[in-house]
Each structure stands twice: as C-alpha cells, then as structure tokens.
Design goal:
Elements: H1 2-11, H2 24-35, H3 43-47, E1 51-53, E2 60-71, E3 77-87, E4 91-93, H4 95-106, E5 109-110, H5 112-127, E6 131-140, H6 141-144, E7 155-162, H7 163-166, H8 168-178
Parallel strand pairs: 2-5
Antiparallel strand pairs: 1-4, 2-3, 3-6, 6-7
Keywords: GTP-binding, Hydrolase, Metal-binding, Nucleotide-binding, One-carbon metabolism, Zinc
Domain GTP cyclohydrolase I: 1-178
Binding site for Zn(2+): 71, 74, 142
C-alpha cells in the first residue's frame, strides 16, 4: 500500500524527496488501513455476548452517534451522525455496542444507503427486536470538494424495520425523538 501511495504522490507531480513527504506514503497507508478497519471485524466478535435479558418493551434510542466513512466511488470521506432505535423483545444490547456496530460498517468503503441498511440489519440480527430504525445524516466530501461543490448539502437516509415500518405511531415517536 505504501508503494501505491508513493506512485499516486509522484503521479500528481510531487517530489517524494521533499521533507514534508518523506514518510507520507507510510503514514497514508497506515491511515487508510485504520479508516477501513471494519473489514477486519465481525458482528459476533464485536458484540461479544453483550445482549442482556430485559423486560423493557419500549423504544431504546441512541442518538447522534458520530459517523465517519469513505465513499466507495471516490475514496473521499463522508461525515455525520447516525440515530439507532429498537423495540426490545426480551433482551437489550449493551449501549456501546450500538456505536461499535455503526463504526464497524462505516469503517468500510461505503455508500450511505447501504450503510444505513447494514446497521439496521445487524441490530435486528443481534437483538431480535420487534422493530429497528436507523437514520443517517451526513455530508459527503465528494459533493463538497469536487463535482458540484455544494457545501451545505446533507444526505439523509433511513431504514425502518418491524414496528417502525408497520406502526405509524412508533415511527412518529422515533422521528420526534431524533428531531428534538
């Protein structure tokens, strides 16, 4: 990967012998590997049994989870937040695991539409919830730094499963909570 970064830097006309660039291929490769560390993680290992019995049958919501990912089309970042809610059916997921699940999928080359669904499906799989809702709001550098160069655009995606899809009252409660 270091050699590939060196080739890219040379291809844009830079001198790899310049003091500021001496270790850049090595640092860039290390950074890219970190930004894509989600490929090295799997759901079962990440959750690590942190699903606990509970008689709570009301909505659990984790809001404003920071999110960083890379657009699979341009390898540019998209940055935002994700809101995750579920209706338990006898068990709840450890709080930090919700954010870790979001990060696992975000730390892969992605499009926001798929990322939203992957998070929702994973929460559903792990909790066997009666419903799951996931909303992502993100700014895409591929829209801001190149192409149309629109600085204030925000993309919002959502997935509603189970009760969130079937019951307008549950969906409306979720939407009111994430917008408050």
């Amino acid at each position: 990967m270091e050699n590939a970064y060196a080739d890219i830097i040379r291809a844009v006309g830079e001198d790899l012998g310049r003091p500021g660039l001496l270790d850049t291929p090595k640092r860039a490769a290390k950074a890219f590997k970190y930004l894509c560390k989600g490929y090295e993680e799997d759901l079962d290992t990440l959750v690590n049994g942190a699903v606990f019995p509970s008689d709570n049958d009301q909505m659990v919501l984790v809001k404003d989870i920071e999110l960083y990912s890379l657009c699979e089309h341009h390898l540019l970042p998209f940055i935002g937040k994700v809101h995750v809610a579920y209706i338990p059916s006898g068990q709840v997921l450890g709080l930090s695991k919700v954010a870790r699940i979001a990060d696992m999928y975000a730390r892969r080359l992605q499009i926001q539409e798929n990322l939203t669904k992957q998070i929702a499906d994973a929460i559903q799989q792990v909790t066997n919830a009666r419903g799951v809702a996931v909303t992502i709001e993100a700014k895409h550098m591929c829209m801001m730094m190149r192409g149309v160069e629109k600085q204030n655009s925000v993309m919002k995606t959502s997935i509603m499963l189970g009760m969130f899809r079937e019951n307008p009252q549950t969906r409306n409660e979720y939407l009111a909570l994430i917008n408050s």
